[in-house]
Amino acid sequence: MRKCLLVLAAIISFGLKAGAQVDQKASYDFIERVIPGKSNLFTVEAIPQQNGKDVFELESRNGKIVLRGNNGLSIASALNYYLKNYCFCDIGWNGTNLNLPATLPVVKGLIHKTTPYQYRYYLNYCTFNYTMAWWGWERWQKEIDWMALNGINMPLAITGEEAVWQTVYKDMGFTDKQLDEFFSGPAYFSWFWMGNIDAWGGPLPQHWMDSHKILQKRILERERSFGMTPVLSSFTGHVPPSFKDKFPGAKVKRTNWDAGFPDVFILDPDDPMFETIGKKYIEAQTKEFGTDHLYSADTFNENVPPTNDSTYLDGMSKKVFNSMAAADPKAIWVMQGWMFHYNNKFWQPQQIKALLNAVPNEQMIVLDLYSDAHPVWNRTEAYYGKPWIWSMLQNFGGNISLFGRMRHVAADPSIALHDPESKNMRGIGVTPEGIEQNPALFALMLENVWNDTPIDADKWVANYAKRRYGQANNLADEAWHILLNSVYSGGLTEGGPESIIVARPTLKKYIDRVLTKPDYDPKQLVKAWTLLINAADSLKQSDGFQYDLVDVTRQVMANYASPLQQKMAQAYQNKDQQQFKLYSSQFLELMDDMDALLSTRRDFLLGKWINEARANGVTDKEKNLYEFNARDLVTLWGDKESGLREYSNRQWAGLIKGYYKPRWAMYFGLLDKSLSTKTDFNVEAFDKQVKDWEWQWVNKHDNAYTDAAKGDAVEKSKQLFAKYNAMILGTR
Q1: Where is the Alpha-N-acetylglucosaminidase tim-barrel domain positioned along the sequence (predicted)?
Q2: Distance in angstroms (rounded) separating the CA atoms of residues 695 and 624
Q3: Which of 606, 563, 604 is nearest to 586 (CA)?
Q4: Whole-angstrom Cα distance, residue 499 to residue 595?
């Protein structure tokens, strides 16, 4: 009997060790970072996985809160569940409420949660630039903690990739000068990594490569300490421009992204060097960063293959995978499914099937990158048997418009999970081009991590408002119900509607990259604004409320800019100079008011973005290069003639007053002159003038923008409500 008990104890012990990996010190350090001074009120314990899935438990014992999980990630999720549901706290990018009760609430009974999803993926290549371009360790540490709190276990991790490529290509004999013509500037890595551009925003300083290789090691160490399995990068064929000269016999083809940049060069997977370089890269990367056997590769992200021949696509796919597997036999290819939506005319069932079926099912995972609006899984027989991940894209270019599809996000993942047609759906993901905006939408999406049934969006937003603002408030509840059914019931557009203020000046209602038509009634948003203003005296101490009030005020004013601009345009076309002057001056005044409003929150400061960029440099030359990158990305996205200008537009303090307003003032001055002189407006002359001015602005280093917020967010919002509410509603 005693022997049996010993054997049983050994089996149980082995099972716990095999299925539960909790670093006690790391978990207590994490709790201390999240709620300083409170870690001694918690007990951390390990339990094994359940049916191969992550699990957590929560209960009270001996005056402490017990957090159990099979890894650090589950422990973190247990803590987040407790903070949200028992302490009514909320931790987010844009406002955090950690006003804990003096005595921590008791958990009655046992809370037990198992995730239905093997994988919970996070990030998009573009996020690393539209939001994360200038992050150092302190900001990364906060984000990794946020990932853990929200149950993310599969983050894309591509910081420092350029340092590995430098090692590989220098070993192949490429010079620093040749690589300077290859590596882009730091704000453009995503499109360099994806094989769209070379060199723009460079040359890349050596200090950047060295410092970010160190940063990546810290990122990976912390992510792995929670039990996350980071997705690293791999070779997709993008080679330096000098490759064709150094290896004249290689099968190198030119391709172009069609965005105004020079051709880039792609090594054909049929070339024997393809597998050699791919193997070298994985080996060099593993030496520096280790591996969890997950590798991202997007062979034709926004480039069309040279042929739709199935044999070619099958062979190409095998070569890409073999270049990973040659270095790591356990390699799993993680593919963004973006191209199947973006170039859907090319990627018909036959072509998709050829690409996917070339790789063993269990060695490829497909990200259905845009499931929240344009799913591909339901028109490809769930990727023909490949494991795949339902993902929310939501954001394009890091734009900050209020936007989302909340009811879809609340229900569609679990509906897909239980749909027999979804076949090998293994997880959910959050894949935005930019973050640090629309925090409620992301919080709702991540509520799915520990749920396998649809979430009641109406109940959820009321609970969210309570914990975000630190108290229940009927006015706030009503406002959030309106937000849910207006800005957060978005249509099938690429992100939220933009404001005409960010457009290069025009008399038109909208231009390319600045689509101003909201798919909701703007007056409904004014109702929500009114409710939040009326709730302000009760909720103004909440950081999250201050952010939300400023954000809603900003969006109301951004929407109002369109009818005001059209009144100006009509007055000009009617040659009514008096009315033209009235509306154009009101338009400029609106921009000043928006800038003053946004100055009250650090979240909305251009100066924060620029100063964080400059902080990465160790010489003035480096600092100025990074500032150019920072200014250019959010404005022109290229040179003077860039076809991508305004793609990454932001309604930020500093950017409105320092960039958008001067363009409009220049335009209005010329229009007014044409009315005074009764001559035609010279479109070509203005076009040249504004392009020259924009390029000068992008290249400035004048220390003009602060990273310190100023003014009272609530009082400024109230002032603007008093000034604009009736005007917007058309009562005067």
Answers
A1: 120-451
A2: 15
A3: 563
A4: 14
Assign residue 52 a region (left: φ > 0; alpha: ψ between -120 and 50; beta: otherwise).
left
Distance CA 137, CA 612 (A): 12
The 10s digit of each residue's pLDDT in 574-618 is 999 999 999 999 999 999 999 999 999 999 999 999 999 999 999
Provide the CA 14 distance to its chain's centre, in angstroms.
Answer: 40
pLDDT beyond 60 at 386:
yes
- The total of other beta-carbon atoms located within 10 Å of residue 74's CB is 33
CB 481 within 8 A of CB 458: yes
Establish how many alpha carbons lie within 13 A of residue 432's alpha carbon, considering only the half-sphere containing its beta carbon: 22
Q: Cα–Cα distance between 335 and 387 in angstroms, integer?
A: 11
Report residue 636: phi and psi, to 5°.
Answer: -80, -30
Grade residue 19 by pLDDT with cuts at 50, 70 and 90: low
| Lookup: tokens for 265 | 């060069």
Residues 520-533, mean pLDDT to the nearest whole number: 97
Backbone angles phi, psi at 453, to 5 degrees: -130, 160
Question: Could you give the C-alpha distances from 151 to 250, 405, 430, 552, in angstroms and in order?
Answer: 45, 21, 12, 29
Please state whether the peptide bond connecting residue 203 to the residue before it is cis, i.e. omega within 30 degrees of 0: yes
pLDDT at res. 397: 96
- The label of the residue with tokens 């290819």 reads 333
How confident is the prediction for the chain on average, in pLDDT? 95
Which residue reads 């309570």 in tokens?
466
Q: Is the model's pLDDT at 5 over the cut of 60?
A: no
Q: How would you write 247-293 as a 3-class SS string? A: CCCCCEEEECCCCCCCCEEEECCCCHHHHHHHHHHHHHHHHHHCCCC
CB-CB contact of 652 with 609 (8 Å):
yes
Residues constituting the chain: 732
Give residue 301's pLDDT band: very low, low, confident or very high (50, 70, 90).
confident
Within 68-186, where are the H helices?
A: 72-85, 127-130, 137-149, 161-171, 176-180
